[in-house]
Specification:
The complex is a heterodimer of chains A (about 525) and B (about 375). By secondary structure, chain A is of the alpha/beta class. Chain A contains 15 helices and 23 strands. Classes of the chains: A alpha/beta (about 525), B alpha+beta (about 375). Chains A and B meet through helix 12 of A and helix 2, helix 3 and strand 12 of B.
């Protein structure tokens, strides 16, 4: 029996959707404007791609969504949950309270119930202090009925999460199992303030994630599609709905990841630079082993410093809708403002009154869209100068993202990629794949599933090699449960950190397996 | 005497990153600690060295331990209380003020948070005028001041007072105690009298950092070149401008050693600069000439913003300007050069001041 899947990716300007068959061939693709209410744009794109594909509805088995709902909620400070923040670590850490250094408007929304409790661990797994359980009970009763979710962060929880786990147990005991808890050990790495910030943001968008998931499932039902729903996450793998609702912060950078993964799939390149030109920005990322290169520095989201793994993306303020200002003395400025999704009404070639990057390309005869007569009056010398500047902006950014001076393959994707030429400085080749306009939606659709475990093992029992093998097997099992094809699973990340001062040669091992979804038979 | 508020702290943090000369640790944690202290206790008193009575007891403070521990187990801010109490009991004298021993990097701002907690003033001086990797690399050492009695204190309330035969033993015992106490401790070290501070410390260093930070911050607003302005404040020299084309890093005995190669742009076309570092930048040279060497300061600044770039943050493609600043004259003495000069770090070079090297360059 045939099996189809839908992939949807929400960008700043467009919401793209594709329908793929079981061989990952594109059956239909569509682009709809991203709407202020993001869900509307998603439903619209969904409806259209289903109509265009015209395949039996019962054969659509999967639907993958990469969305900006959570990112927008944080950046716009809208629809955030009422949360409580519990940090376990006193008497350490008191010198910097939670949310210090976070923009004040967010502090006001998220900092109403903040507590620092005795407990936490040393770097080697010893306790800093015994967990103050009475205090946790007191806090639980204090916030009862006042909060939607709670962020829990314990010092050195990446080494031992025992105090976070115990705190969660007590909170569930008092407040019921429905209350959503975000544990920092499941979200970030060493670096207390950044991990705590990420955990707080996670707790703040739980309801947004729930509504988004339910809305998407309902929209599919309305189309009479009974597909299994997945959400894309930052590392290019999929999360089930249940997991997404617990860890919505992991969806925050799925957009750039999807376009990188889509570009890898479309070109069969596993090591390349991917340049995604959208309506407002050009996002440049690097593929290494077919996965996005991760950023090594602290990443800011909505002005908040976090440290969890995100794709390393350099954004340049240049897209199809970028506004070009020309001054009386003949000088000009490119962006950073953009007409965004209003390109089709604002650009000169579409009868508007604003000179955009797209107009420049059309006037120079490098693309054939809209009405070229409307830009005939512009000076060719000026246009050429603007064009050269646009290309050099991208070339300079490309150079910054490379790790060496050697030329590297470049893949151009995104609706705005018509802005760029076939030759770029620093590129060994420039590839523009078919379906380049919807690479992100394809990346969303082809995403793999993953399973991850993180556990402290005693190496003295089995020896290092056998213990690592066992950790890998456990990750494989998790990935299978998530729906992975056993034939296709590989370990994509494994890390072991020895913990000194503990008997039995204790080592924390984290393993992650990923692979394609098991085919429906 | 003046009061230090939040904006001053933000500016000092940027200046501290610049005088960190690529190392010294991210001032971020110290900055947030100081900001919270000001929020809770109000602005913090900053005294000039001249305002310190000759007989007053001054105790510099710093954090010691693994940076990865400090970013996870953030200090409680109360460590200094126990440390200072132990010292006062031992010396039979009250502490008058604290100050940084290292103005570059993370240790620049920690004394502010501790001072706020204890209700003490901070003195506008330090023992390096920059960042250095080892405990004896302070101007106090050059004047024969002992690191001990020193106190290590953790957030749990433990403190241990060390009285050692010399500074090497102090370093050795302190390192192993630090591990037992949880990997990161507060240090009260080089206790001395006001008179000794006047003789041995580097004066007005926090004020300089604040000016550097403010210069970079206001450059955009008032539309001037921050780098030219920094050079005029610090009597520094532009050594090079270009783009990082290669970085070779290795971790050796706990230090991040390596070399960055920068390809010249603008006035430096067709030249390459080699920047050698061990946590901090130590040597800048081209194929033919040495341009600047330790203990003079070498900082790498972002060409667009003027903000300092650390050795960790240096990567292929970074557009930067490399500047050289003359170090304090205390480092230019025989003992100073022996302690922190090129030969100490394994470079077979005689120390030559940056202004002299630049002069030769022009001829």
């Amino acid at each position: 029996m045939r099996s189809y899947r839908i992939g949807i990716d929400v960008g700043g300007t467009h919401t793209d959707a594709v329908m793929l068959d079981e061989f990952y061939q594109v059956i239909a693709e569509t682009k709809a404007p991203t709407t202020t209410d993001v869900s509307k744009g998603i439903y619209h794109a969904l409806k259209e791609v289903v109509m265009n594909a015209n395949v039996p509805l019962e054969q659509i088995n999967y639907a993958m969504l990469g969305t900006t709902h959570c990112t927008n909620a944080i950046v716009e400070r809208k629809r955030l949950n009422q949360i409580a923040v519990i940090r376990i670590g006193a008497p350490a850490t008191l010198a910097i309270k939670p949310l210090m250094g976070v923009p004040e408007d967010l502090q006001e929304i998220l900092g109403k119930y903040m507590y620092i409790v005795e407990g936490g661990h040393e770097f080697d797994g010893r306790e800093i202090a015994r967990l103050d359980e009475e205090e946790i009970y007191r806090i639980a009763n204090n916030v009862k009925g006042k909060v939607d979710s709670i962020a829990i962060t314990s010092v050195f929880s990446p080494v031992s999460n025992a105090h976070e786990q115990r705190t969660a147990e007590i909170l569930h005991e008092v407040l019921g199992d429905e209350l959503e808890l975000s544990l920092s050990s499941e979200i970030g790495n060493v670096g207390l303030l950044e991990r705590e910030n990420a955990t707080i943001l996670n707790a703040a968008v739980v309801n947004v994630a729930k509504e988004t998931a339910n809305g998407f499932i309902d929209a599919l039902k309305q189309e009479n599609i009974n597909a299994k729903v997945f959400f894309g996450q930052n590392d290019g793998t999929l999360m089930s709905v249940e997991y997404t609702v617990r860890y919505p912060i992991l969806t925050i950078a799925c957009g750039p990841t999807n376009s990188l993964r889509g570009a890898a799939f479309l070109t069969n390149k596993s090591d390349a630079v991917v340049i995604d030109v959208g309506g407002t920005t050009t996002d440049i990322g690097v593929l290494s082993n077919a996965f996005p290169r991760q950023s090594s520095l602290a990443v800011e989201i909505g002005g908040v410093r976090t440290n969890f793994r995100m794709p390393d993306i350099l954004s340049v303020g240049l897209g199809g809708g970028t506004i070009i200002q020309v001054f009386e003395d003949g000088s000009f400025q490119i962006g950073p403002d953009s007409v965004g999704y209003k390109l089709s009404e604002k650009a000169l070639i579409f009868g508007g009154d604003t000179l955009t990057a797209t107009d420049v390309i059309v006037a120079l005869g490098r693309a054939n869209i809209g009405d070229a007569c409307k830009v005939n009056h512009l000076s060719k010398d000026l246009l050429q100068a603007i064009y050269e500047k646009m290309v050099s902006m991208v070339e300079e950014a490309l150079d910054k993202m490379k790790t060496s001076a050697d030329p590297i393959p470049v893949v151009l994707v995104g609706g705005g990629s018509i802005l760029l030429p076939e030759v770029l400085k620093g590129a060994s080749e420039v590839i523009k794949p078919v379906n380049f306009g919807v690479a992100n939606a394809i990346g969303s659709a082809i995403s793999q599933v993953s399973g991850q475990i993180e556990k402290i093992f005693m190496l003295d029992e089995l020896g290092r090699e056998k213990t690592m093998e066992r950790a890998k097997q456990m990750a494989f099992e998790e990935a299978k449960i998530a729906g992975g094809d056993p034939e296709d699973l590989v370990i994509v990340d494994i890390e072991d950190v020895p913990l000194a001062y503990l008997p039995g040669n204790a080592t924390r091992i984290r393993a992650k397996a990923a692979g394609s979804l098991k085919k429906m038979s | 005497m003046r009061y230090i508020g939040k904006q001053e702290i933000e500016d000092i943090a940027v200046g501290a990153a610049l005088l960190g000369t690529g190392g010294g640790g991210d001032p971020y944690i110290g900055k947030l600690m100081a900001l919270q202290a000001i929020e809770e206790k109000g602005p913090i008193q900053l005294l000039s060295v001249e305002e310190v009575p000759d007989g007053a007891l001054v105790v510099p403070s710093a954090m010691m331990g693994a940076p990865t521990v400090m970013i996870e187990k953030v200090p409680s801010g109360k460590e200094a209380i126990g440390a200072f109490e132990s010292l006062q009991a031992y010396l039979g004298k009250n502490v008058f003020a604290t100050m940084p021993i290292e103005a570059g990097g993370v240790n620049s701002l920690l004394p502010f948070a501790l001072a706020a907690e204890l209700g003490l003033p901070v003195i506008d001086a330090d023992g390096m005028g920059r960042a250095f990797p080892e405990l004896q690399m302070v101007t106090f050492f050059l004047e024969g001041i002992s690191a001990t009695p020193m106190v290590l204190a953790d957030e749990k309330g433990n403190s241990s007072l060390l009285q050692t035969v010399n500074n090497v033993w102090a370093e050795r015992i302190a390192r192993s105690a630090t591990v037992e106490m949880g990997g990161s401790v507060m240090l009260s070290i080089y206790p001395m009298e006001g008179k000794q501070v006047k003789q041995s410390a580097i004066h007005q260093i926090l004020q300089l950092e604040e000016r550097i930070g403010r210069t970079i911050r206001e450059a955009k607003q008032f539309d001037y070149d921050p780098i030219a302005e920094i050079l005029s404040i610090t009597n520094g020299f532009q050594l090079f401008q270009g783009k990082v084309i290669d970085i070779d890093r290795k971790t050796e005995s706990g230090f991040a050693r390596g070399m960055a190669t920068i390809e010249g742009t603008d006035n430096y076309q067709d030249q390459q600069l080699y920047l050698k570092f061990q946590n901090e930048h130590l040597l800048a040279e081209t194929k033919d000439n040495v341009l600047c060497m330790t203990p003079d300061l070498i900082a790498v600044l972002d060409s667009d913003t003027g903000l300092p770039i650390t050795t960790e943050g240096l990567r292929y493609g970074s557009r930067c300007v490399v500047i050289g600043l003359p170090c304090d004259r205390k480092w230019r003495t025989e003992k100073g050069i022996e302690t922190t000069g090129p030969r100490y770090f394994g470079y077979d070079l005689d120390y030559t001041p940056v202004e002299k090297l630049m002069c030769m360059e022009e001829e």
